[in-house]
Amino acid sequence: MSKHTPMPGRPAARLAPALAVAMAVVLSGCASFSGDQGFSAVAQATQERIGQQGKLLRSDEDHKALAGLLQEQLKQPLTADGAVQIALLNNRGLQATYWSLGIAEADLVQVGRLQNPAFGYKHTQGGGDTSIERTLGFNLVSLITAPLASRIEGRRFEQAKLAVAEQALKVAAETRRAYYEAVAAAQAHEYALQVRDAAEAGAELGQRMQKAGNWSKLDAAREQAFHGDALAEALRSGKQVNASREKLNRLLGLSGAESALKLPPHLPELPSAVQEVADVEQAAMRNRLDIQAAKLETGHTASTLGLTRSTRFINVLELAAVRESATGRPRERGYEITLEIPLFDWGSARVARAEAVYMQAVNKLAETAANAQSEARESYHDYRASYELAKHYRDNVIPLRRQVSQETLLRYNGMLASTFELLADSREQAAAVSAYINALKEFWVAQTNLEAAMGGKGANK
């Protein structure tokens, strides 16, 4: 550390510290908080992609408004869009993610404010003399690099907005999937109960006919076995109803009486045609927020690398104003500069690390883009295939099964078909209906996956 240099005149002695203070005041004045912590950008992003937006719950009025919305929504059977709306507002994990914007904005404001000056006071006595030394120091490196550091932290804030919006879209998609699964489970369970009751009646009929000598033990055992399978399926589907409803409740943030939400009795019908998308890969690259976030991360890393290179030889640089007085001596004023000498560490390790981090970010961006394109292709193929499967059950399998049942009943009434044939046909029809419910659920889930893979509902527009 170099010793201070006495200055004969006050203006020259205070010039450098005064300049540092002025620059600090100007730069610090530029850092301020926004009114909404950047949440408006998140709301706009979700509105553009899924037609809905969340809200950061800040006050008692916000919570009261949410309670009113929940009360209104839960009076009637819940829709898929209604479920998403509740999740965007009431999912506590998502609300915690919303508040991460406040953390990111605070970091941005903080980096725009310079480090506080350091004041030193030294008082020594000896041989009847008293020496007093006062210093006021500023970190010049933080002063010089503050504009660039603010730009870097600004990119991080923008990246945080994208990350929060992406998480909101993920919760929305997961909620929509859970909604369709819960509705399908309830519909399948209701049908399973009907099949169980029919199987029970068939088993009782088989026992009576066996006692009357009209049926063999084999035929009666078949009906008993079908009744056992139907009972097991009803119990299994009941478990699935509870599990799927609770999963939906967790995503919606519902508990207590609110968890007894009403769902429609069946899934929505298939649309008249599939959604045609000219280029799903391009839609994903254009709209997906994870790709945009990865791009910002790469740019942020590149900026950090530039900052590292510019400060590789300056690890510590401080400017301090010095004022010293001693007994019997005139007061001395001056300034002191502290500079770390790059004798052993020339900063090459820090630069090499920054370059490695940058190349890591570049490759992660490439991976994110490749995965997004693959997910878009896979989701679009699954969407179209799921539509064709559900349409095949609706237009071919179910009508044919209904026709077979009608013909079998006519033959039974005309004593051309046995009771066993009639019951066997009912078992086959039950299996076809269950498969159609599952295929219809898979289609709606596939459509949700496609929208998520392309970055939202409006991605193909």
Question: What would you note in describing this structure?
Answer:
The protein is elongated, with a radius of gyration of 36 Å. It contains 11 helices and 4 strands. It has 461 residues and is an alpha+beta fold. The N terminus is likely disordered. Strands 1-2-3-4 form a 4-stranded antiparallel beta sheet. The longest helix has 72 residues. A hairpin with a 2-residue loop joins strand 3 and strand 4. Helix 6 packs antiparallel against helix 9. The chain starts with 9 loop residues before the first helix and ends in a 7-residue tail after the last helix.
Helix count?
Answer: 11
Number of strands: 4
> Could you say which structural class the secondary elements and strand pairing correspond to?
alpha+beta
String of helices and strands: HHHHHEEHHHHEEHH
Give Rg in angstroms: 36 Å
Spans of at least 5 consecutive residues whose pLDDT stays below 50 are 1-29, 313-317
Mean pLDDT across the residues is 79
Task: Please summarize the sheet with the most strands.
Answer: 4 strands, antiparallel
Topology:
Elements: H1 10-29, H2 39-50, H3 60-73, H4 80-90, H5 92-111, E1 118-126, E2 129-139, H6 140-211, H7 217-252, H8 280-287, H9 289-310, E3 317-326, E4 329-339, H10 348-413, H11 419-454
Summarize the structure.
The protein is of the alpha+beta class and 461 residues long. The chain has helices at residues 10-29, 39-50, 60-73, 80-90, 92-111, 140-211, 217-252, 280-287, 289-310, 348-413, 419-454; strands at 118-126, 129-139, 317-326, 329-339.
